[in-house]
């Protein structure tokens, strides 16, 4: 049994925030627990952008009885008027006397001011309890609020010889059911899902989220330098989620107009011949897409990795070997490094065994 202490309540607040991943858009996920005289009197989670913050929900539940209480919050309470008024002021007004915070809010509009406001009113504030877990939980929010660029997670399922299809292009299925379920949870937890046009032409995927319970569909993003995408492609015609096609000035204006008439948003990034991926990330950030799940294929994966645009790599490996030409159908197609010391390596590696599949994830560094 857990021992009751500060960590006991903070981990509950983090658990609640964790369950809201994927539904707050560019906002963070935040949990709050209010404790008084040995009992919890309020629980709150920020559920959707534009609606109440975690502290507000928890204090509303406490219904005016929070005087003298301790509030556990997974992110520094805000100090600014955004879509909602400042939480720090609300904590002060309610007479909370101690606030335990897991991590600072890097939002330049907050960045320490929330904690400062509380301390100026004589409230005891402690920052840093379970900080590592809290930072990891909001890694997408943190990147986007500081850079206005989306956080990109690359997901790939490959054979043991690193291939994402056989030499004929067959790819159903490589990974096991357990791994494929995780992928759909990952889709729910990202605002966008990105593929290259070759993947659309080869597989005609719908790129939607399919779980045992309904999930959210990410915006479908297709990188297509010359607008080769067929108008009949599922992502153009099925209406299941918005679709953005990123192309170049080299694309045919007539095709662009047809795609726009079909309801697709077309964004031009660079003169061609290839999409300028760095400016694509900026353009997608401007559309308030704060997180992207990159599902390849190999050419786009390789180009994104080489350009340093990937924040997390999640690779599923299945115990299969399919062979093929050297480097053909590989997870990452790019010219490659000369020396092993120049390899792109992963930091903070985590390994998870899923039946007979293995998941290896980490942060790529050069
Ligand atoms: C908190 N508690 O539950 C959340 C916070 O547009 P708004 O009003 O929703 O403000 C969004 C910003 O507020 C967001 O960028 C982040 O800095 C903070 N989010 N703060 O005290 C919460 N969701
Ligand atoms: Zn707030």
Automatic annotation (TrEMBL):
<comment type="pathway">
    <text>Cofactor biosynthesis; riboflavin biosynthesis; 5-amino-6-(D-ribitylamino)uracil from GTP: step 3/4.</text>
</comment>
<feature type="binding site">
    <location>
        <position position="87"/>
    </location>
    <ligand>
        <name>Zn(2+)</name>
    </ligand>
</feature>
<keyword id="KW-0862">Zinc</keyword>
<comment type="function">
    <text>Converts 2,5-diamino-6-(ribosylamino)-4(3h)-pyrimidinone 5'-phosphate into 5-amino-6-(ribosylamino)-2,4(1h,3h)-pyrimidinedione 5'-phosphate.</text>
</comment>
<feature type="binding site">
    <location>
        <position position="225"/>
    </location>
    <ligand>
        <name>NADP(+)</name>
    </ligand>
</feature>
<keyword id="KW-0521">NADP</keyword>
<feature type="binding site">
    <location>
        <position position="173"/>
    </location>
    <ligand>
        <name>NADP(+)</name>
    </ligand>
</feature>
<comment type="pathway">
    <text>Cofactor biosynthesis; riboflavin biosynthesis; 5-amino-6-(D-ribitylamino)uracil from GTP: step 2/4.</text>
</comment>
<feature type="binding site">
    <location>
        <position position="199"/>
    </location>
    <ligand>
        <name>NADP(+)</name>
    </ligand>
</feature>
<protein>
    <recommendedName>
        <fullName>Riboflavin biosynthesis protein RibD</fullName>
        <ecNumber>3.5.4.26</ecNumber>
        <ecNumber>1.1.1.193</ecNumber>
    </recommendedName>
</protein>
<feature type="binding site">
    <location>
        <position position="171"/>
    </location>
    <ligand>
        <name>substrate</name>
    </ligand>
</feature>
<feature type="binding site">
    <location>
        <position position="53"/>
    </location>
    <ligand>
        <name>Zn(2+)</name>
    </ligand>
</feature>
<keyword id="KW-0560">Oxidoreductase</keyword>
<dbReference type="InterPro" id="IPR050765">
    <property type="entry name" value="Riboflavin_Biosynth_HTPR"/>
</dbReference>
<feature type="active site" description="Proton donor">
    <location>
        <position position="55"/>
    </location>
</feature>
<dbReference type="GO" id="GO:0008835">
    <property type="term" value="F:diaminohydroxyphosphoribosylaminopyrimidine deaminase activity"/>
</dbReference>
<keyword id="KW-0378">Hydrolase</keyword>
<feature type="domain" description="CMP/dCMP-type deaminase">
    <location>
        <begin position="4"/>
        <end position="126"/>
    </location>
</feature>
<dbReference type="Pfam" id="PF00383">
    <property type="entry name" value="dCMP_cyt_deam_1"/>
</dbReference>
<dbReference type="GO" id="GO:0050661">
    <property type="term" value="F:NADP binding"/>
</dbReference>
<keyword id="KW-0511">Multifunctional enzyme</keyword>
<feature type="binding site">
    <location>
        <position position="295"/>
    </location>
    <ligand>
        <name>substrate</name>
    </ligand>
</feature>
<dbReference type="GO" id="GO:0009231">
    <property type="term" value="P:riboflavin biosynthetic process"/>
</dbReference>
<feature type="binding site">
    <location>
        <position position="157"/>
    </location>
    <ligand>
        <name>NADP(+)</name>
    </ligand>
</feature>
<dbReference type="InterPro" id="IPR016192">
    <property type="entry name" value="APOBEC/CMP_deaminase_Zn-bd"/>
</dbReference>
<comment type="similarity">
    <text>In the C-terminal section; belongs to the HTP reductase family.</text>
</comment>
<feature type="binding site">
    <location>
        <position position="203"/>
    </location>
    <ligand>
        <name>substrate</name>
    </ligand>
</feature>
<dbReference type="InterPro" id="IPR016193">
    <property type="entry name" value="Cytidine_deaminase-like"/>
</dbReference>
<dbReference type="InterPro" id="IPR002734">
    <property type="entry name" value="RibDG_C"/>
</dbReference>
<dbReference type="GO" id="GO:0008270">
    <property type="term" value="F:zinc ion binding"/>
</dbReference>
<keyword id="KW-0479">Metal-binding</keyword>
<dbReference type="GO" id="GO:0008703">
    <property type="term" value="F:5-amino-6-(5-phosphoribosylamino)uracil reductase activity"/>
</dbReference>
<feature type="binding site">
    <location>
        <begin position="297"/>
        <end position="303"/>
    </location>
    <ligand>
        <name>NADP(+)</name>
    </ligand>
</feature>
<feature type="binding site">
    <location>
        <position position="187"/>
    </location>
    <ligand>
        <name>substrate</name>
    </ligand>
</feature>
<dbReference type="InterPro" id="IPR011549">
    <property type="entry name" value="RibD_C"/>
</dbReference>
<feature type="binding site">
    <location>
        <position position="210"/>
    </location>
    <ligand>
        <name>substrate</name>
    </ligand>
</feature>
<feature type="binding site">
    <location>
        <position position="207"/>
    </location>
    <ligand>
        <name>substrate</name>
    </ligand>
</feature>
<dbReference type="InterPro" id="IPR024072">
    <property type="entry name" value="DHFR-like_dom_sf"/>
</dbReference>
<dbReference type="Pfam" id="PF01872">
    <property type="entry name" value="RibD_C"/>
</dbReference>
<feature type="binding site">
    <location>
        <position position="78"/>
    </location>
    <ligand>
        <name>Zn(2+)</name>
    </ligand>
</feature>
<dbReference type="InterPro" id="IPR004794">
    <property type="entry name" value="Eubact_RibD"/>
</dbReference>
<dbReference type="InterPro" id="IPR002125">
    <property type="entry name" value="CMP_dCMP_dom"/>
</dbReference>
């Amino acid at each position: 049994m857990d021992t009751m202490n500060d960590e006991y309540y903070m981990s509950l607040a983090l658990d609640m925030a964790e369950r809201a991943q994927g539904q707050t858009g560019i906002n963070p996920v935040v949990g709050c627990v209010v404790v008084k005289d040995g009992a919890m009197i309020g629980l709150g989670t920020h559920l959707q952008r534009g609606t109440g913050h975690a502290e507000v929900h928890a204090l509303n539940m406490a219904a005016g009885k929070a005087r003298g209480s301790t509030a556990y919050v997974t992110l520094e309470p805000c100090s600014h008027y955004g879509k909602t008024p400042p939480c720090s002021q609300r904590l002060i007004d309610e007479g909370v006397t101690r606030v335990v915070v897991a991590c600072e809010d890097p939002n330049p509009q907050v960045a320490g001011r929330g904690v400062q406001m509380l301390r100026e009113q004589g409230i005891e504030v402690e920052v840093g309890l379970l900080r590592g877990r809290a930072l990891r939980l909001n890694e997408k929010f943190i990147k986007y609020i500081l850079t206005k660029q989306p956080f990109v997670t690359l997901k790939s399922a490959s054979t043991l010889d690193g291939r994402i299809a056989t030499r004929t292009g067959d790819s159903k299925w490589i990974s096991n059911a357990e791994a494929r379920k995780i992928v759909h949870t990952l889709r729910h937890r990202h605002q966008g899902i990105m593929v290259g046009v070759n993947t659309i032409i080869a597989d005609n995927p719908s790129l939607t989220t399919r779980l045992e319970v309904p999930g959210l569909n990410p915006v479908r993003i297709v990188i297509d330098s010359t607008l080769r995408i067929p108008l009949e492609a599922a992502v153009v015609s099925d209406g299941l989620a918005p679709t953005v096609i990123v192309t170049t000035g080299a694309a045919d204006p007539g095709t662009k107009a047809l795609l726009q008439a079909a309801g697709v948003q077309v964004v031009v990034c660079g003169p061609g011949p290839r999409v300028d991926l760095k400016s694509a990330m900026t353009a997608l950030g401007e559309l308030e897409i704060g997180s992207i799940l990159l599902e390849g294929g190999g050419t786009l994966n390789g180009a994104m990795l080489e350009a340093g645009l990937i924040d997390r790599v999640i690779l599923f490996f299945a115990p299969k070997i399919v062979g093929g030409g050297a480097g053909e159908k590989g997870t990452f197609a790019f010219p490659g490094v000369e020396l092993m010391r120049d390899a792109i390596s992963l930091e903070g590696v985590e390994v998870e065994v899923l039946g007979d599949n293995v998941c290896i994830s980490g942060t790529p560094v050069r």
